[in-house]
Write a structure and sequence with these properties.
Rossmann fold; 8-stranded mixed beta sheet; 8 strands; globular
């Protein structure tokens, strides 16, 4: 079902690569706060940054406004050496390609000398990608994020881990997926209405059952762990 990539949960991979308990961690592109809440449950001293105020307010409603900072990854409002770890989780590819190098440089600036940067990005393949493709084909932007990470290695960063795996995304039905995509980006709503029937057909084609009997879609992932050089 997963090809050559091992089947893993995103949370397992993050917990393996970044020591969390007591660590000061920055979630870059925190959105509505799903990862931020998980980090706090793991006893990290976690903070989230996002430029989209509506999503940030949703996150603040669950973790507290003091942990949610409005800002952009390419101009971080933090002092040098402020964090033990920073994470781009499904977020680097949402930046314009022209600012990706600056965002990675800013992450390096705010990390302590022995800090870690984790970049977790979806690969342009798999059932989840195919089902959402009619709404937004991210092939180009995901490739741009990959190039930016590769270019950063050796330019202030050293690449310590490069790994691919497949995660299973529970999606009970096309309506749930459409709601999720609209919540992540309200600007998609018009397009979602136009392609709803295509999403329904693709969902029926790509849906799988996991070991717990849930309906899921496959999403291959790539994780890169970088350390300041």
């Amino acid at each position: 079902m997963t090809g050559d990539r091992p089947l893993r949960r995103n949370s397992e991979v993050l917990a393996e690569l970044v020591p969390l308990e007591g660590a000061r961690v920055l979630d870059l592109g925190c959105g509505a706060g799903d990862l931020l809440r998980w980090l706090l449950r793991r006893k990290a001293d976690a903070f989230g940054l996002d430029p989209q105020l509506p999503l940030l307010l949703r996150a603040a409603g669950t973790v507290g406004p003091e942990r949610c900072i409005a800002g952009r990854a390419e101009a971080l409002p933090f002092a040098d050496g402020s964090f033990d770890a920073a994470i781009f989780f499904n977020s680097l590819h949402h930046l314009p390609e022209t600012v990706m190098p600056a965002a990675l440089a800013e992450a390096r600036r705010v990390l302590r000398r022995d800090g870690r940067l984790l970049v977790v990005e979806p690969i342009a393949a798999g059932g989840y990608f195919e089902v959402m493709r009619p709404v937004e084909d991210e092939t180009v932007v995901r490739a741009a994020a990959r190039r930016a990470v590769r270019a950063a290695a050796g330019r202030g960063w050293r690449l310590e881990v490069e790994r691919e795996y497949t995660t299973l995304v529970p999606v009970a039905g096309p309506a749930e997926l459409i709601s999720r995509l609209a919540a992540a980006d309200p600007g998609r709503e018009a397009r979602l209405g136009e392609v709803r029937s295509r999403i329904e057909r693709l969902y029926a084609r790509h849906r799988l059952r996991d070991a717990r009997g849930r309906t899921v879609l496959e999403q291959p992932m790539r994780v890169d762990l970088l350390r300041p050089d």
